[in-house]
């Protein structure tokens, strides 16, 4: 999946991956896609809730080794 912006939030603990993602998605236009890479285990629950509450769409998520990857479409 092609992302318009990639955010490396690996090694950051909650709530920093969400904080950094909020800042990154604010730089995008509606409909653009933010790809986030994080090692925070809580992100599995945090990102779907954050995307929904912000009016964004979580398109996809996957785990690759110890890295969780999320693709979020800006609402």
UniProtKB/TrEMBL annotation:
PROSITE patterns, alphabetized: UPF0033
Domain UPF0033 intervals: 7-31
Pfam families the UniProt entry points to: TusA
Family from the record: Belongs to the sulfur carrier protein TusA family.
Name of the featured protein: Sulfurtransferase TusA family protein
Species the sequence originates in: Psychrobacillus psychrodurans
């Amino acid at each position: 999946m092609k992302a318009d912006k990639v955010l490396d939030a690996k090694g950051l603990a909650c709530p920093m991956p969400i904080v950094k993602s909020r800042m990154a998605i604010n730089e995008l236009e509606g409909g653009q896609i933010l790809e986030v890479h994080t090692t925070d285990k809580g992100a599995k629950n945090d990102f779907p809730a954050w995307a929904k509450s912000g009016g964004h769409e979580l398109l996809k998520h996957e785990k690759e080794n110890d890295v969780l990857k999320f693709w979020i479409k800006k609402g």
